[in-house]
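Could you join me in thinking about how sequence relates to backbone shape in a protein? To get us started, please write out a protein record for me. Would you write everything just below, so we can both look at the same thing?
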Amino acid sequence: MRLGSFFLIAATLAAQSTRGLPWDGTPNLPWRAAPAGERPGTPPLLAAPATGPLRVRLDPDGALKVMDAKGIILLRTGLPGRPQKLWRDGGHPLLGTSGTWNFPAQTPLRNGIGALPLGLPDFRPGLAGILWVLDDEERLLTVVHPATSRVVYLALPGGTGLDLEFLPDQLILHQGLAVAGIGRPRHYWSLPWLNLLPQFILLGTPAPSPKPGTALQPFPKE
């Protein structure tokens, strides 16, 4: 009996070791680098209502949970590092580096790739209902879609002191002047939204339902 339990535990640990971390194997993306001169200003995107039945909690250590209105945990995961900068929807910054926010259960991504504004000048309204997290390792951008309990990781080109800017047609990654040095140009990398369609398709696909718990506690709660 004990020997069988030992082999079961060993097999479980081996399987976890094989799977590795959820962000292992994140593919590189075609970021385009350039020195950032003066670019025309971008009209701000109207903020989507920060309401909905889903609750996202992000702790200072990077632990992240998505819960429904009953407190049932739909997703429990972690970040590659500690959260450093946060945005929601099409680029609205969130104050602080941790907290709890409400998100909608129905989003453009939830309705499939055909619901995204692919042929319109501004793609950002199609990003409603997304949480974007840059952690202090600054090598991956964590993208969370609470409506489907999906997470994807976007590989960043490198650097420190990074910041994001959400433009109508592309995502911009800045390297700040404080890091680049006084008098030197502020660098940036750009990535068109259309290059992220595979990631958006995955984010829009509902994750498998969480496994039930015990008879006394059928679903995991806080």
The longest strand covers residues 73-78. The chain has a mean pLDDT of 82. Residues 52-203 form one domain.
